Amino acid sequence: MKTLNNILKGKIIGNYNQENNEINDFEYIYGLVSNSQTAFISIPSHRWADLTGKNSKLKDGNSYINFNKQKPGLIITEEEYDDKEVPQIIVSNIIDAMKKIALYMRENYKNPLVAITGSNGKSSTRLMLGHLLSDYEIFQNRGNNNTRSAIWLNLCKLVKNPDFALFEISLNALNNRGNMSLVVKPDIAILTNIGEAHLSTLKDTKTVAEFKSRIFEGISENGTIIINDDTLHSDFLYEKALLNTKNIIKYSMKNSYDILRNVHSYASKGQQTVNVEIKEEKYSYNINMLGKGMVENSIASMLVLKVLNINLNSVLDKFNDFKSLPKVMEIKTIVNKHNQNITVIDDTHNASLPSYINAVESFNQQSRFYKGNKVLILGKISDMGDETLDIHNRIVPLIEKSDADYILCIDDPMRAVTVQVKNKSITWYKDRDLMLKDIMFFLNDDSLILFKSSVTDSDLPVIAAKFPYKYKMSEYKYDEKVFKTIGNHGKSYLVVDNNQKRIVSSENLKNTGTIEGLNLLIYYIRYHELLIKNEIILSKKIRFSEWPTNDEKYNRSTIMSIEKLLDEIQEVKHPTLTYEFSKLLFKTPLERIKYISRFIENNNLNPSVSVNRTGRFRIKERQSFTVEELALISENYRELLGDRSYIFGDKFYHGIVLKNNIIGCFTSFSDYKEVTNFVEKIEKGEYINEFEAN
User: Fold this and answer.
1) Does residue 484 lie within any of the structural domains?
2) pLDDT of residue 540
């Protein structure tokens, strides 16, 4: 503590008798203070921006202090903390103070420090190295805290004087706010790869390479740089490395070098075997994780150990039980209550284009070991900026060549991907709860599933997190006619006495749902609104336009009155009729889209009730609504809709029946006789009689 105060030139207050106490750790999040030899760096709220470059919602550090939970050995602060039981060092600027400690610790740390960066693979490589070096005292990032602020703190933590320090460094710590490599001064720097990441802030992958290569600039005298020679811009990276050291090692899955030769890997169920020759010695080991990227990370790790003069044979068995961060190609086996067994690969920790390719290729590699359905469940790659469309378009051929039997997608950029994919059963979802429910219908015994997306700004990580529990409880069974099964499962009805606000009769409300949208019912409501305003002339003749669903019966030569159109829509399930109806009601597609969006919002409906223009079933665009949503709409528009029936649907029949104060709603009836029976019972008041009898 006394040494710290000499470094900081501050003022010790409180318990002076403790100034010779040892401090062997630092934290700036009070909840992470774990012992009385830790110094708490208390950062005022206004200083966080100085550290991170952006405003923070964190309160003043002193407000988090709670001696009842854990007492630190020291508080370093700008403002005195009231309780002087724990000694304090008062400084004028806490950020400058932390940096002084960090620089002092780095200057006095003499053991090897390894720094790792890359568009992806940096966390796995760092964790793998830590696992292989587990017989030694090591320090490494907590989780994947790899930004500028975390690195300043981690440099302070070198007070522990570990045998080896492993620093994962993000682009945030190498950008124009200052190159942290110049402070970290790595003895070994690894660049795992360059890929399509951070394109919302950087122009292209060459710019990514330029920023990532800044890690070389801090390399210590006689330090070593290790570069993936298979990555984008590898020649540029090598030239940048040469400016800083002559000790450069390249690794590759394709090429051989003096130090590294004959890298081969092959997959078995749930693992990979790697054979490699390093400095003319042959090594073989198994990794219980999947993907080419994990093999590359293991090669980089082996090369680091070689530079550190670690006996490579002594660590080979450790590859067997290595695990990366949660949700990084994480393999789980799940059994439901019917003893149906499936395997899930969860790779929703993060996504760049290279990691996306790696995940799908790993899925393909594993698919031959599973007898059940192979299902890809895919979300977006985030942080792509103006390149979002182009990057996601590059996923299309990857999906088309995959071994997946079914592909389910979510997030807006994936809708364009879904439209382009050919010769695959692929479906895009607007709503995560609907996707989570549907997944169960695609799975049978010994299925293989991959969840792949970015961790931020995507709905998929939430779905992947909820999936295991939902699957364990699942009673759904796979049938080749998946969507017909889903439709049948959602068959339901609901009869409501609108005056007394009571349910008269119902069936299967728990599973209610459709495979079609609500558009036609929304159009009926719009039609009545225009009719009241005298903006619809029923006798007017309309000539049909060119629609993708035109056929011999309904085409450009068809001429029909509006009244006739309405009659035929009720009787004939034909999307061309719905196209014409929507064109009649809205002047432009934009007007239609805005109206439907407002309708969904005003009635608090799920966004999936309307996805395409006609509401018809299309495998690429998942739509659904519930019988409760029909009842809600019926109640909200009761006077407008009048006493009558509205029947619609494509693969199934859905509708509402309005008679006096009774609202009858149904979804997913497959037989028209059931529809007529339901309508007749409402009109005759038979459901009311049933209720009163009960």
Assistant:
1) no
2) 85
Q: Which residues, including other chains, have CB under 8 Å from residue 542's CB and lie 6 or more apart?
A: 559, 560, 561, 562, 565, 580, 584
Question: Does residue 302 sit in the same domain as residue 334?
Answer: no
Among 476, 509, 533, give the residue marking a domain's end.
476
pLDDT digits (tens, 9 = 90+) for 207-243: 889 999 999 999 998 999 999 999 999 999 999 999 9
**196 and 249 part of one domain:** yes
- Asked whether the predicted pLDDT for residue 643 surpasses 50, the reply is yes
Query: Are residues 414 and 297 located together in one domain of the fold?
Result: no
- CA-based angle 248:251:256, to the nearest 5? 105
Whether residue 307 is predicted with pLDDT greater than 70 in this model: the reply is yes
- Give helix 672-684 / helix 686-693 axis angle, nearest 10°: 70
DSSP 118-150: -SSSHHHHHHHHHHHTTTS-EEE-STT--SHHH
> Does a structural domain hold residue 547?
yes
Considering only CA atoms, which of 315, 378, 304 is closest in space to residue 346? 378
Q: How far is the C-alpha of 361 from the C-alpha of 409, rounded, in Å? A: 17
| CATH number (domain holding residue 555) | 3.40.710.10
Q: Which amino acid is at 501?
A: K
Element (H, E) at 306: helix 292-307
Tokens of 421: 């994919």
Residue with tokens 């990084």: 328
Q: What is the C-alpha separation between 694 and 691, in angstroms, rounded? A: 5
Phi–psi pair at 407, nearest 5 degrees: -130, 125
The arithmetic mean of pLDDT across residues 557-584, rounded, is 91
User: Both 73 and 123 in a single domain?
Assistant: no
Q: Has this prediction a pTM greater than 0.85?
A: yes
**At 148, which CATH number?**
3.40.1190.10
| Inside any domain, residue 104 | no
Band of pLDDT at residue 694, cut at 50, 70 and 90: very low
Q: Which tokens sit at 381?
A: 């790659």
Q: Is the same domain home to 523 and 558?
A: yes
Q: Which of 468, 367, 483, 371 is nearest to 427 (CA)?
A: 483
Structure tokens at 656: 């509402």
Phi, psi of 623 (to 5 degrees): -120, 155
Structural domain count of the chain: 4
Contact 325, 130 (CB under 8 A): no
The amino acid at residue 514 is T
Distance CA 315, CA 164 (A): 16
